[in-house]
Specification:
Length: 182
C-alpha cells in the first residue's frame, strides 16, 4: 500500500508511463511537445517535458531516480509542492532562454533540480534530517550531478537541461521556506 503522501509521486510516474504508452500506440509523436528553446511552441514544453521521453531506456533511466528524489522531498518537507513546481518552471524557463536549439524531453531537469535542492536545503538548514538527506543524495547522485552537466560531443543528452535544473534547484533551495520535519 502506498502511503497517502506518496500518491502524487505514483501519479506522476504513472502519467509518465501513460504518456509513453500513448506515444507508442498512436501515430502521433508526443515527443514533439518537448521544450524547444526560444520558440513559442517550446514554452508548452516547460511543464510537459517531464512527462515526455525519447524511448524506453530514457523512461526507465528517469523513473527510479525521480521516484526516490520526489519521495525524499515529499516526506522530508512541510510544503514540498511549491518547491517542486518552482524547480520545473524555473529550470524550464532557464532552459527555454539559454538552452541549445534542440527538442528537450525527459524528467532529468527535475531530477537534477531535486538533487541540488535537497543538498542546498541540507546545508542551509543545518538540521539532522536535512543534512542526512543531503549526504545520502550527494553520495548516490553526486557523480551523476557532476558528469550530467558536462557537454559530451555527439551526445543527445540534454546536459543544458540538467544544468538549468541544477541551477533552479539551488535557487529554490536557497529561498525555500518549506522547512524539513527536522
Amino acid at each position: 500500500m502506498i502511503p497517502p503522501s506518496l500518491i502524487p509521486v505514483a501519479a506522476i510516474l504513472a502519467a509518465m508511463w501513460l504518456v509513453y504508452l500513448v506515444d507508442f500506440l498512436l501515430p502521433i509523436s508526443m515527443v514533439s511537445f518537448g521544450l524547444v528553446p526560444r520558440t513559442f511552441q517550446g514554452i508548452l514544453g516547460i511543464p510537459a517535458m517531464t512527462f515526455l521521453h525519447g524511448g524506453m531506456k530514457h523512461l526507465l533511466g528517469n523513473t527510479v531516480p525521480l521516484a526516490i528524489l520526489l519521495s525524499l522531498t515529499i516526506v522530508t518537507r512541510d510544503r514540498p509542492w511549491p518547491s517542486i513546481i518552482s524547480i520545473v518552471l524555473g529550470g524550464g524557463a532557464l532552459l527555454w532562454l539559454f538552452g541549445r536549439s534542440a527538442n528537450h524531453v525527459g524528467a532529468s531537469l527535475l531530477i537534477f533540480g531535486l538533487i541540488t535542492f535537497l543538498i542546498t536545503v541540507g546545508i542551509r538548514e543545518k538540521q539532522f534530517v536535512s543534512i542526512t538527506i543531503a549526504l545520502v543524495v550527494g553520495f548516490f547522485f553526486g557523480g551523476s550531478l557532476l558528469w550530467g552537466v558536462i557537454p559530451m560531443p555527439g551526445s543527445s543528452v540534454s546536459w543544458d537541461g540538467h544544468l538549468c535544473g541544477a541551477i533552479a534547484g539551488v535557487v529554490v533551495g536557497l529561498n525555500a521556506t518549506d522547512y524539513s520535519f527536522g
